[in-house]
Amino acid sequence: RSRGLGDVYKRQIVTSNGYNGISVSNAVSTISNNTVNNNSNAGIYFSGSAFTIDNNHVNGTSGRGIIAYGTGNISANTVTNNTDGGIYHGGSTGDVVANTVTGNTSTHGAGVYFGSTGDIRDNSITNNTAGSYGGGIWAISVSYTHLTLPTSDLV
């Protein structure tokens, strides 16, 4: 599904699509309370100005579970068993908060790949495997004075 301009995506079940499960571009959007399974590129893909991605369940995607470019927060999602990583936050600012990220694999940043300025906090990031860097978290190109990891469970 691709839409734009201030959309709200809630309570959808999106399974086994040929590309992104939910794809939103050039918008201010909320993506919330969805179940997204077994898609081929990304479970949830956002590219635009501002976003909220929360309370989704993303599992078994052959790409990354959640990919977000823009300013916004990724919170309270369950992201499991994706083959190119769990969460990618590549926007300018935003936080990754209170997510459960487990069983993902990737070359870099298998659990969380963070290329923004903001906080990573209160997450459970467990049993993710990277081929080289950041099995749990790979934070690059960020201001480390703004990167915090309090009360996150990293295993």
Question: Which properties best describe this structure?
Answer:
155 residues, mainly beta, eleven-stranded parallel beta sheet, seven-stranded parallel beta sheet
Describe it for me?
The protein has 155 residues and is mostly beta strands. Helix content is 0%, strand content 52%. It contains no helices and 20 strands. It has strands at residues 2-3, 8-10, 13-15, 22-25, 28-32, 35-37, 42-54, 57-59, 64-75, 78-80, 87-89, 96-97, 100-102, 105-108, 112-114, 120-121, 124-126, 129-133, 137-139, 153-154. Strands 1, 2, 4, 5, 7, 9, 11, 12, 15, 16 and 19 form an 11-stranded parallel sheet that branches. The protein is globular and about 35 Å long. Residues 1-5 have low confidence and may be disordered.
